[in-house]
Design a protein that fits this description.
Chain lengths: 246, 290
């Protein structure tokens, strides 16, 4: 594992009266995948959006390579090297595929990724680069969204609900990319509802339950039962757990 | 031949409407702000051309060369301060704030320059025209304004579709949060869009002052025509704005031909028909309404 890139300390975020994230701390190192698992409403997306700078924390700090970035605007964090691929892709729908990547590259850091490199990673892209973003399928849009984040050459990549709404074969292809990205020394913070998928690619796992850290460890250390318990909290009937988990 | 004249005069005034409306359309398209002070900004530009630029020994006919960039600067500052603050609260606040701005501007102009009519003095040029047929007179000034409108729209279109900053403007218009996540300071981009809008409305205001007499309260009716132009042409389409302006101009000239009192009425009827039959406008996309 490389140097520590991202350090979150005691992060607490409120949505109005509701405490969405409650005193969470963790680190992301270069070249590792930290997967954040938890049920709907556990605070995963809020946590990720706060790290990206879209939400203000009530308490706690976000530190990137030793410097505190807690008060920086999202675009400043991108230029330092923290990029978020948001839930629901959020492409610029009236722009073409290539223009989406160009916007991502406008304030890019130096690094291994550029638009040509993205076109190598996704061979179907060059032939369709002049199509508008709304014309692509969900999986293709997810790939474009990842490409748009990568061309900025982030050192930490935040991925929110990567598999949501995608077909299994597409999910497989998207996940096959992660080792390639990690190999460039990028640290990945992955939020995933699909526990099997998320834990499968993780170097470390962090379980959130109602905004609090319920469990942490490496996939080898943690048993399926432990994760299941941390995911749902307390005793849940076996039947409902099977319904939720693919 | 009479009808040909109606159409020609409609096209000429339509160019002016398009020039007037493109800034309104841009501000709504990019930051979802309806600038109710848009018409008053045009009037202020005309006053600046008449009263202030002569101090700098700039003839009124060339005033636009300094007034348009100056208004661009004003637009950026107003956007980054006043309008951004109201966007941050909620969309309704922007209506209140720009309406308030409109009231303040009108009353300040009345206070300083009185309600007397003014004109941007361009000397002999105002009466010169091209006279190709017995009853057809094509005023050089109107022709120049139409040419300016087409040039501004073409340049704007080119800027938005080809330049990096233009691309960022379109990206921010689509999803400003996603633009932030791509490293873009959307507030700065909003400022640039407002700068363009204010610069174009300054051109329109000076053009207006060249063609007709204006007074502190002239902004209101022009704002109405600008709205009609944008809605007829379709929100978010620059060439639609030109076509919308021309359609409005022809409808008004047609009304004036039927009865001089019907000039504005016929324009309003066209506007209402378009709203009823094709609410997204002639060139607009349905999604722009949602």
């Amino acid at each position: 594992m490389g140097e520590t890139l991202l350090e979150i300390h005691d992060l607490t975020v409120y949505h109005g009266q509701l405490c969405a994230v409650d005193g969470v701390s963790f680190k992301v190192d270069a070249g590792e995948v930290l997967t954040m698992v938890g049920a709907n409403g556990a605070g995963k997306s809020t946590l990720l959006r706060t790290v990206a700078g879209l939400h203000r924390q009530t308490r706690g700090t976000v530190t990137f390579k030793g410097a505190e970035v807690t008060k920086l605007a999202p675009q400043r964090r991108v230029r330092l090297g923290i990029s978020l691929v948001p839930e629901g892709r959020r492409l610029f729908s009236s722009l073409t595929l290539e223009e989406n990547l160009q916007v991502g590259a406008h304030h890019a850091n130096k690094g291994p990724f550029n638009i040509d490199r993205i076109y190598e990673l996704f061979e179907w892209m060059p032939g369709r680069r002049r199509q508008r973003a709304w014309q692509f399928s969900g999986g293709e849009q997810q790939a474009i969204a990842i490409g748009r984040a990568l061309v900025a050459n982030p050192q930490v990549l935040l991925l929110d609900e990567l598999s949501l709404g995608l077909a299994p074969i597409v999910i497989e292809r998207i996940y096959a990319l992660l080792p390639e990205i990690v190999a460039q020394g990028v640290g990945i913070l992955l939020v995933e509802q699909d526990v099997t998928l998320g834990v499968g690619v993780a170097n470390r796992v962090h379980c959130l339950l109602e905004g609090k850290t319920a469990l942490t460890g490496t996939p080898e250390e943690l048993s399926a039962e432990q994760i299941e318990q941390a995911y749902f909290g307390g005793d849940m009937s076996v039947a409902s757990a099977h319904d939720e988990q693919p | 031949m009479i009808w040909l004249n109606v159409i020609i005069q409609g096209v000429l005034v339509g160019g002016f409407y398009a020039l007037f409306a493109c800034g309104l359309s841009l501000m709504f398209g990019v930051m979802r702000v309806i600038n109710l002070a848009h018409g008053d900004m045009a009037v202020v530009a005309a006053y600046v051309a008449v009263f202030l630029t002569p101090h700098a020994h700039i003839p009124e006919v060339w005033a636009f060369v300094v007034v348009a960039p100056l208004f661009g600067l004003v637009g950026y500052v107003v956007q980054r301060t006043l309008i951004q603050k109201s966007i941050d609260r909620d969309p309704f606040t922007t209506l209140l704030v720009t309406f308030g701005l409109s009231v303040i501007i009108e009353n300040l102009l009345l206070e300083v320059y009185s309600s007397n009519g003014q004109i941007v003095n361009i000397g002999e040029l105002i009466v010169k025209s091209w006279h190709p047929e017995a009853i057809i007179y094509i005023s050089y000034v109107s022709l120049a304004v139409l040419a300016a409108a087409v040039a501004v729209l073409a340049l704007l279109q080119l800027f938005l579709s080809r330049s990096g900053t233009g691309r960022l403007i379109r990206a921010v218009a689509d999803d400003h949060e996603a633009a932030q996540l791509s490293g873009t300071n959307y507030r700065h981009i909003f400022g640039i869009a407002a700068a363009i809008a204010f610069a174009t409305v300054a051109l329109a205001g000076i053009a207006f002052g060249m063609m007709t007499e204006f007074a502190p309260t002239s902004g209101g009716i022009n704002l109405l025509f600008a709205f009609e132009t944008v809605v007829i042409g379709g929100i978010g389409s620059l060439w639609g704005t030109l076509v919308g302006g021309i359609a409005l101009g022809i409808a008004q000239q047609f009304g004036a031909h039927v009865n001089p009192e019907y000039q504005v009425l016929f324009g309003n009827i066209l506007f209402l028909v378009v709203l009823a039959v094709r609410p997204q406008g002639l060139f607009g996309k349905k999604t722009a309404l949602s």
